[in-house]
Specification:
- The chain is of the alpha+beta class.
- The protein contains 6 helices and 13 strands.
- The chain has one domain.
- The strands form 2 sheets. Strands 2, 4, 5, 8, 9, 10 and 12 form a 7-stranded antiparallel sheet that branches. A 6-stranded antiparallel sheet has the order 1-13-3-11-7-6.
- β4 and β5 form a beta hairpin.
- It starts with 6 loop residues before the first helix and ends in a 23-residue tail after the last strand.
């Protein structure tokens, strides 16, 4: 490989943010904060270790994903409760907000809707920031551990309790359909509590021990009627490996809260994206 004479100049080109968010509609965090003060718990779902569970959240209600027994990460899918083909779009969320999300940032839905599905209203790990390895918490860069990659990398071993399979079983049971019908609806995730980044030397996706501890939680407001699907990852705190029965794993607790109706006066669910879908034809 021949290094060009102007290599240093080419590499010195300044980066440009692809999607400046100055004009992105901002959530009304003051309104959400006031609504949080009125919350009343309406339900909960426990997600067992190495399993997934599905839950529903009405628009305007809040939900919390809680660490309850030990350090544990979770893989979260979101769907429009009335049209499961509208689902969380991790790639566009990453393009708008960055590799990890926290308070005030949103989970965006797939095309053609591209609208907020949920907004992070509280993050007890918001203090973590970006560490010396380039790692941070709650990533939208990992896809989810899955049996296909595991089989590929383990010389044919089949492991059935990775997050993709957990989410598939959970959604199939919730919908009352076959695994083959549910699997195409499972999608790239928000890795709740997972601490990840990219190595500087090789650019590889890495994970490290999650800083989450019992009592920590990530809280959202549902911007539309949602179906959530959460897997308690078989990697536990992801300090060593995933897709394994050897790692210590713990349950996660999802809590649903209703605010006082008057606390969200003037708030409405976001409508689908206004692009006319003509695509220049």
């Amino acid at each position: 490989m021949t290094r060009p004479a102007d290599a240093d100049a080419r590499r010195a080109a300044a980066p440009v943010i692809c999607y400046p968010v100055d004009t992105l509609p901002a959530p009304d965090m003051a309104l959400y904060s006031a609504a949080r003060d009125t919350l009343v718990k309406t339900g909960e779902v426990t997600v067992p270790p190495r399993e997934a569970r599905t839950f529903s959240v009405p628009a305007g209600h809040f939900f919390r994903i809680n660490s309850v027994q030990g350090a544990q990460v979770g893989d979260l899918n979101l769907h429009n409760a009335h049209d499961l083909s509208e689902r969380f779009y991790s790639g566009k969320t990453r393009a708008l907000h960055g590799t990890h999300i926290t308070t005030g940032e949103r989970m965006w839905s797939s095309f053609p809707h591209l609208r907020p599905m949920a907004t992070v209203t509280h993050d007890t790990l918001g203090w973590y920031g970006i560490d010396d390895f380039g790692g941070s918490v709650h990533d939208v860069i990992g896809t989810r551990c899955d049996p296909y990659t595991h089989t590929l990398l383990s010389d044919g071993d089949h492991y059935h309790h990775c997050c993709h399979s957990n989410l598939t079983r959970s959604l199939a049971g919730y919908m009352g359909v076959s695994l083959n019908e549910a699997e195409p609806l499972v999608h790239d995730v928000l890795n709740v509590f997972m601490c990840t980044g990219f190595t500087r030397d090789t650019g590889q996706y890495f994970m490290k021990a999650s800083p989450v501890r019992p009592g920590d939680y990530l809280e959202f407001i549902a911007e539309i009627d949602l179906i959530g699907n959460l897997s308690a990852c078989p990697g536990g705190d992801c300090s060593s490996e995933h897709s394994s029965d050897a790692t210590a794993c713990h349950p996660l607790l999802v809590e649903i809260y209703a605010p006082a109706r008057s606390s969200l006066t003037g708030w409405t669910s976001p409508v689908s994206n206004s692009y006319d879908r003509s695509h220049g034809a």
